[in-house]
TrEMBL record:
<comment type="subunit">
    <text>Homohexamer.</text>
</comment>
<feature type="binding site">
    <location>
        <position position="74"/>
    </location>
    <ligand>
        <name>Mg(2+) 2</name>
    </ligand>
</feature>
<feature type="binding site">
    <location>
        <position position="106"/>
    </location>
    <ligand>
        <name>Mg(2+) 1</name>
    </ligand>
</feature>
<keyword id="KW-0378">Hydrolase</keyword>
<dbReference type="InterPro" id="IPR036649">
    <property type="entry name" value="Pyrophosphatase_sf"/>
</dbReference>
<dbReference type="GO" id="GO:0004427">
    <property type="term" value="F:inorganic diphosphate phosphatase activity"/>
</dbReference>
<feature type="binding site">
    <location>
        <position position="33"/>
    </location>
    <ligand>
        <name>substrate</name>
    </ligand>
</feature>
<dbReference type="Pfam" id="PF00719">
    <property type="entry name" value="Pyrophosphatase"/>
</dbReference>
<comment type="similarity">
    <text>Belongs to the PPase family.</text>
</comment>
<dbReference type="GO" id="GO:0000287">
    <property type="term" value="F:magnesium ion binding"/>
</dbReference>
<comment type="function">
    <text>Catalyzes the hydrolysis of inorganic pyrophosphate (PPi) forming two phosphate ions.</text>
</comment>
<dbReference type="GO" id="GO:0006796">
    <property type="term" value="P:phosphate-containing compound metabolic process"/>
</dbReference>
<protein>
    <recommendedName>
        <fullName>Inorganic pyrophosphatase</fullName>
        <ecNumber>3.6.1.1</ecNumber>
    </recommendedName>
</protein>
<dbReference type="GO" id="GO:0005737">
    <property type="term" value="C:cytoplasm"/>
</dbReference>
<keyword id="KW-0479">Metal-binding</keyword>
<feature type="binding site">
    <location>
        <position position="47"/>
    </location>
    <ligand>
        <name>substrate</name>
    </ligand>
</feature>
<feature type="binding site">
    <location>
        <position position="59"/>
    </location>
    <ligand>
        <name>substrate</name>
    </ligand>
</feature>
Amino acid sequence: MKNFNPWHHVPIGNGQPEMVQAIIEIPKGSKAKYELDKETGMLRLDRVLFSSVNYPENYGFIPQTLGEDHDPLDILVLSQIDVQPLCILEAKVIGVMRMIDNDEADDKIIAVAKNDMSVNHINDVSELPKHFALELKNFFEDYKKLENKTVRVEEFQNAAMAKEIIQQAITDYQQEFKN
């Protein structure tokens, strides 16, 4: 019997690339770095963060996508709640944080939880407080420093660019796994 793997078996959603299903790996406020184990489909504790920071938002991936780093496309989902790991939620795409992790592109799609009235009115990252972008940038540039790894946040881009990245990641996934 083949293992159920949320990366391959959960649909991306009908409204993509504007609306996608997100599978949360790490709840907002966590100090644990969980990752989907590609072989088993289970969550694996990758590490406890080396520095004194916590994940600023719910963090996970978009199923049936393939990013430039050969992993499912990463997504940060804004919500007033800490979403439990392996929870599936509908997310409205509002932008992307362009990032380089150890000299490799590692974009982070930014979205809002569709069913959270406190954030679902937001349509683009430009509507977020400027300080929010600074906090995200600071977290991602700092959380690996004590591991002697370099992360560089290049820029935040709008929802249109994020949707292009998602479309490409869907195409790349289909070419890699469906052919």
